[in-house]
Amino acid sequence: MIIDIHAHGCTPGGNLAVNEERLLRASEKYDIAKIYISNLLAVYPTKEQVDEGNLSASRFMKKHPDKIGGFVYISHEHDNAVDVLKRGIEEQGFEGVKIWVSEKCDSPLMDKVAEKTIEYGVPMLIHAFHKSRNQLEKESVGKNIANLATRFPELKIIMAHFGGNPYNGIPMIQDIKNVWIDISCSMFHGDYLDYTVERIGAERILFGTDMCGPFLNNVGKVLHANITEEERELIFYKNALKLLDRNFKPEGI
Which residue has the higher pLDDT, 187 or 114? Predict the structure, then answer.
C-alpha cells in the first residue's frame, strides 16, 4: 500500500487537465491508495489565485474521493488566510494545510493560521529547500521549520523534500517531535533516506513524490534504502494514516 502525501494537480504554468489525468493514470498503474494534492498557481499568488487553485483541487477531490485527497493552500501573508483555511477544511474537504514560498513559515503572519490548524487537528505541509544558489527570498529552510515547530509544539508539521538538503534540514528538526518529513525531491543521493532514518527514525518519514514529477524515482528511494520491511511500510503509508488522524497528537502533547 502507498499513500502519496505530496503531489500537485497544478503548478505555475502547468496544464490542470493534463496533470489531473496523469495523477489518475499513476494511481492506477502503480496502485497508489491515495494521492494528496495542492494546487499552486503562482509563486506569489493573489487572493483570487489562491481561491482558484483551492477550488479546482476541491472539485478534483470530490470527483475522485477514493483516490484523491488534498491540502488547502494558504498564503499566510494574506489578511484572509484564516478564512481560506476555515473554508478549505469545513467546506471543501481538505485534510491538511499547504504552505509554499510566498512568505517564510516562521513569520509572525503564520501565528493565526498555525493556531487554527492546531484547532482542526490537521497537518501542515511546508515546502522547505536549502539551495546553494537561487534561493527564493521567502523560501523556508530547516531552521524556519524548527522555529515554527518550537513556537507551536501542538502543530503537526511535515517538512517537505527532506528540507531540500537533508544534511542541512534534518539536524535542524532532529529533536523536535512535532516535525515529520516527506521524501519528495527531484534531486537525490543514494544515502539520503538511510541518513534520515538514522537521524530521526522511520516513524517520522512520509512518502511523497511532488507529482506530476517522477513517481518511480521516489519509490526507488524506499525500496533500495538499507531499511527493514517494517520501516518501508511506515514510510509508504502507516505514518501518513496516523498523521492524518485528527485525534493524533505529537509526542509529549
Answer: 114
What pLDDT does residue 186 have? 62
Long-range Cβ contacts of 201-204 (<8 Å, 24+ apart): 202/227, 202/230, 202/231, 202/234, 202/235, 202/239, 203/234, 203/239, 204/177, 204/179, 204/180, 204/239
Dihedral over Cα of 7, 155, 135, 103: its sign: positive
Sorted by where each starts, the structural domains of the chain and their CATH numbers stand as: 3-244 (3.20.20.140)
Largest interatomic CA distance in the chain: 46
Contact, 188 vs 213, CB < 8 A? no
Q: Which residues contact 121 (CB under 8 A, 6 or more apart)?
A: 156, 246, 247, 248, 249
d(CA 79, CA 244): 27
Q: Concatenated DSSP letters for 162-197?
A: GGSSHHHHHHHHTT-TTEEEE---SS--TTHHHHHH
Owner of C-alpha cell 498557481: 41
Q: Which of 86, 154, 144, 92 is nearest to 118 (CA)?
A: 154
- Nine-digit cell string for 233: 511500510
Confidence of residue 187 (pLDDT cuts 50, 70, 90): low
Instruction: Name the residue with higher pLDDT: 120 or 189.
Output: 120
The three cell numbers of residue 206 are 512520509
Question: Would you report the helix, strand and coil content of the chain in percent, each value rounded to 5?
Answer: 45, 15, 40
Cβ distance 200 to 171 under 8 Å? no
pTM recorded for the entire structure? 0.96
